[in-house]
Amino acid sequence: MYRTHSCGALRASHINTEVTLAGWVQKSRDKGFMIWVDLRDRYGITQLIFDEERTSVDLMEKAKSLGREFVIQVHGVVIERESKNENIKTGAVEVLVTELIILNDSKTPPFTIEDDTDGGEDLRMKYRYLDIRRNPVKENLLFRHQVSMEIRKYLSNEGFIDVETPYLIKSTPEGARDFVVPSRMNQGQFYALPQSPQTFKQLLMIGGIDKYFQIVKCFRDEDLRADRQPEFTQIDCEMAFVEQEDVLHTFEGLTRHLLKEIKGVEVDSFPRITYDEAMRLYGNDKPDIRFGMTFGELNDVTKHKDFKVFNSAELVVGIAIPGGASFTRKEIDKLVDWVRRPQVGALGMVYVKCHEDGSYKSSVDKFYDQVDLERWAKKIGANAGDLICILSGETNKVRAQLSALRMEMAERLGFRKADEFAPLWVVDFPLLELDEETGNYHAMHHPFTSPKPGQLELLNSRPGEVKANAYDLVLNGNEIGGGSIRIHNKQIQAMMLKHLGFSDEEAKEQFGFLMDAFEFGAPPHGGIAFGLDRLVSILGGQETIRDFIAFPKNNSGRDVMIDSPATIANDQLKELNIKLDTQE
Amino acid sequence: MYRTHSCGALRASHINTEVTLAGWVQKSRDKGFMIWVDLRDRYGITQLIFDEERTSVDLMEKAKSLGREFVIQVHGVVIERESKNENIKTGAVEVLVTELIILNDSKTPPFTIEDDTDGGEDLRMKYRYLDIRRNPVKENLLFRHQVSMEIRKYLSNEGFIDVETPYLIKSTPEGARDFVVPSRMNQGQFYALPQSPQTFKQLLMIGGIDKYFQIVKCFRDEDLRADRQPEFTQIDCEMAFVEQEDVLHTFEGLTRHLLKEIKGVEVDSFPRITYDEAMRLYGNDKPDIRFGMTFGELNDVTKHKDFKVFNSAELVVGIAIPGGASFTRKEIDKLVDWVRRPQVGALGMVYVKCHEDGSYKSSVDKFYDQVDLERWAKKIGANAGDLICILSGETNKVRAQLSALRMEMAERLGFRKADEFAPLWVVDFPLLELDEETGNYHAMHHPFTSPKPGQLELLNSRPGEVKANAYDLVLNGNEIGGGSIRIHNKQIQAMMLKHLGFSDEEAKEQFGFLMDAFEFGAPPHGGIAFGLDRLVSILGGQETIRDFIAFPKNNSGRDVMIDSPATIANDQLKELNIKLDTQE
The complex's ipTM? Predict the structure, then answer.
C-alpha cells in the first residue's frame, strides 16, 4: 500500500502521527527556505511542508523539482499548521516531510486542474482523464454512482430482479436507426445493438419474472442533437399483473426515494396531468411546473373584434410574465425579436401591459378596449404588474412557440431553481402520432403500447384520437421516464403492427418471436424506462448530460480521446465478409 | 393490481381471508364434481378448489376449460386444506374460488414447465421465455441477481465507484477478435465492442478515481467452445496506489464475503501458490484443491533402470488414486484407453497398485523392483490401497494429460463436491507466453501487465522466464478472476509493445492515447476482473454458465429464440457505406 491515509483524512487529532500519503502535486509554493506543496487525491488536499531548518538539503532540492501533476509518495509527521485554512477539511494540519518518492513525473497539463479550468470543451474531452481529476467532473461521477446504487437498492428491496438482457440482438427498422454488428460466424448476417431491451423485458414477463429492472446501455444511431449520445444508459423496468396505477405508484415511490435520499427533498404525491391538458396549459408534454405562467386560450374573447391576425388563427394563446409590465419598449422589442428567431419561429407577438393602477396598455389598442384586455388578463391569470404575451397561429406551432417563450422567461426570471424539484406524471398520451411529412401514423411510444380500454374501435375511424395506456414522468421540464401498459395479446399486437404499416411478413419476421410468445400465456404487463444520464444531471442540478458521463462522445459520435471510430484492418473486413462501398 | 397476494404467500393464518390471486395454471385435476387447480407464479404455487356444492355451474364449466399455462385471475376465500401438503409453503390452505377471469389462454407448451422437463436444450432455448418459468432456471436468475447485488454493496462500501465505460470503442487487433460496428456518421470507420474496459479503467486511475468497479458486458468474437458466449459479463475492478498484496487482500475480502453471505461458508485466508508450483503439483494453472492427488515427479527415481520410455521423457510424473488398488484389470485398461483418447492424448500409462500388505504390483515390473516402486509411492504420497498412475513425455503435454486424469478421477470418486468451496490465488504468472506455432511471444495476461521488479532486464535475454505481477483467483478448479499490476510508465509500455511485435506506428495508433496519458502523472495501479457468469454458476454449484444467463446464445453465436443474427435491409447497408463481399 502506497499510503496510510488519504489526502482528505488528516485532522488536528492526527498531530504527531507518522503518515504516508500519495497523490498528485496540485501546486507548490517555493519561498526558497520553505516549500509548501498541496498534495491532492480523490479525497482532498493535504499541505506538505519542507523547510531548511528541518529538512535535509537533498530533500529540499527534490521538493523544488516537483512540477504540477507529478505523482509522489511522502512520508512525514503531521504537525499543526500555523495559518489554518478553514476552507478545507485538512486545513488544521500539514505534513512535515521526511521522505519523498517521485512515483511518476508529468508534463505540464494542457489545462489547469482546477474547479474553474482554462480548458475548453474540446481540449477537456481529448484529455478527459485529466478533466476527471477536476472536482466538478469527479463529483459528478461519484454522484452518478450514488444515484445508481440507491436505485438498485430501492428496486431490489421492492422485489425487482436485475436481469441482464443481450446486447447482440436483431435489427428492427421501426423507430430510430440501429447500430449493427456483422457476424463472422454467420456470414452476411448482422446483430444489432439494442435501442432498448423492450422485447426482452416483455419476454421476461411472459417468463414469469414479474418484477424486472436493469441499468443498461442502449444505442441509437441518430444524427446527434446537442446533448444526445449514441450510447446512453436506461433504468429499464417492467412488471407483470399490473395496471397503469400500479406502475405509477411504484415508480413514484422510487423517484420520491431518490429525491429524499439524494437531495434531502420530500415531495408529496406527484400531480398528474393528461397529455391534452399539458399541451393546453403548457404547450408542452413535459411541462416545468416549478413555476406557473400557464397558458390562457383567448380565441373566444378575441374573435368579436376586427383583428384579422387573431380571427384567422387556429389558436390565440397567451401567458403572463410576472413583473413584465415594467419592461421598456426596447426590452419588449427584444422579446418580439426573440420569438421571431428561426429557432422559435413565431411571426409576431402581441403584448398587454397590466399596470398597477388596473389599466392596460397593449400593442393592439387599435382593436381592443380595456374591457377586452381585462377579460384576457383574467383568462390568463395575469396580475397587476405583469406583461401578457400572446401568440397566434396553427395550434401545434403556437403552443411550441409560447412554451419556448415561457421557459426562456422563467430562466431569465430565475424561476428554474436547480435545488427545487417538481415532478409530475403526464398520462393519457395519444397512441399514434401523425407524421406530417408522410401522412402516416406511427407509434408515439412504441408499437407494443396498448390502447386505453374500449378505444380499439377508434383505431380505424379516428386513429389520431386513440389514447394509450402510456405515461411520462417529468421532472423540472425534462422527461426523465416514460412507459406504458403493453399489449399482451397476439391479435391486438398484429392489428397494431398493421396500422403502423407493417406487412404480415415484416411483422412476423421482426416480432414473430414476441407474438408467438403471446400465445403461451402472456400475463398483462407494463413498465417504464428512465434515462439515467438525464435523471442524474437534473438531480445534480445541471443541464448537460455529458458532464455526468465518464467518457462521452462528441456531436459527431466520436470519442476524441481514443480517436474512435477508426478504420479497421482489411483482414478484419475480409473475415467479416464485408467491404467498404467506396465506389459509390 | 391484479392480485392481493402472490401464489407463495398464503398460510394457515390467512384462513377465511378473501384474496385475489393471479398466475399460471400449473395443472388441474378434474374429478367431475370437484376441480383442483395449481396456480403458479414467481413466488410459489397455491391450490385452487372448485366444487359442485359451493361453486356455481357456470364457474365449474369455466374451470373445466382451463388448460396448462393459461393465465388467470381468481377471487375467493382461503380455506383449510383437507389433505395438507408439507412440501410447499402454501400447503396448509387452498382457495375456494368465487370468481375466475381468464386473462390469457395458452397453446400447449412445447415442453413441460416442470423442474425436470421433457424439453431438450434446443427446444428450451427457442422457447426460453417458457424455460424461465421453470424453477431451476428462474432460481438461477434470482441467484445471479443476489450475487450481483452483494458484489455491488460490498465494493461500494469499500469505496469503489461504479463508473460506466463506453461500449462503442476502438478495435485493437491484439488479443481475441473484436466485434466491430460500422459508423454511419464517420463513413469507412468502425467502432469496436470492448473485450474488456481495460484501457478505460486505467485511464480512470490516471484520472484519480482510485477505486473503480463495474459489472459490464464484454464481447469476444471467438469460435465458441462449449460454454463460451460471445457476450459475457465481467466484474471489472481497478485500484490506484496499490501493490499486488493490496489487490489480493481486497478481492479476497470480496470473495470471502460472497461465500459467507451467499453460501453461508466461512473460508480462512486463501492459500497462495505460484504458477510454477501449480503447474508442478497440479499440471494446471487453475487447480481444484478440494482434494489432494498432487503430482509427484519421478524422473530422478526412474532413470537408473533400462526403461526407455521413462529415460527419454522430459517429464515422468504420477498421481495416486485413493482406493484404486482394487481396480480390476478391465477397469485399469479402460483408464488407459481414457488417457489415450484424442481429447487427452497420452501415449500410454504406467500404473502401480499399492497393496494393503505393503507390496506393489506395477505394469513395469520387468524394469523396476519393489524398492523402486516404494520410492515412487513415497514421492507421490501414495498410501496402501491407492493406484499410482504415471504418464511421461514432453513436460507441458504430460502435465495437461495428467491434470485431465486427476480431474476425471476426482469427479468419478465424488471429490468435486458442489457445496465445498476451495479458493486459492495463483501468483507469479509468466509475463510472456511462447506461441509454439509462430515462435513469437505474446502477453500471457495482456500487454499492460507489469513485469516483476528487477526482471525487466531479462526481457531481451530470456523472455520466457520473466515473471509478471499477475494473479488469478481460482475456485474449485475454475479461474474466476484474473488481474495484474499494470505498467504506468510510457517507456516501459513502449518496450513491452515492441517485444510483443508492435511497430512504433501500430503502438501509437492503437494505444497512443494510453501512453500519452502515462505522461501526465499516471499513478501506480492494478486490478482484477472476475467472470460473473462463471462465478455465479460455481457458487450455484453448477457447471454450465448458460443456465445462469437469461437469454444465452448457442455455439454458433445465434440466439435461436429471436433468430439472430439476421440479414439487414439493403438501405441499412447503403447508409453504412458497406456491402457484402459475396463475390469472393
Answer: 0.95
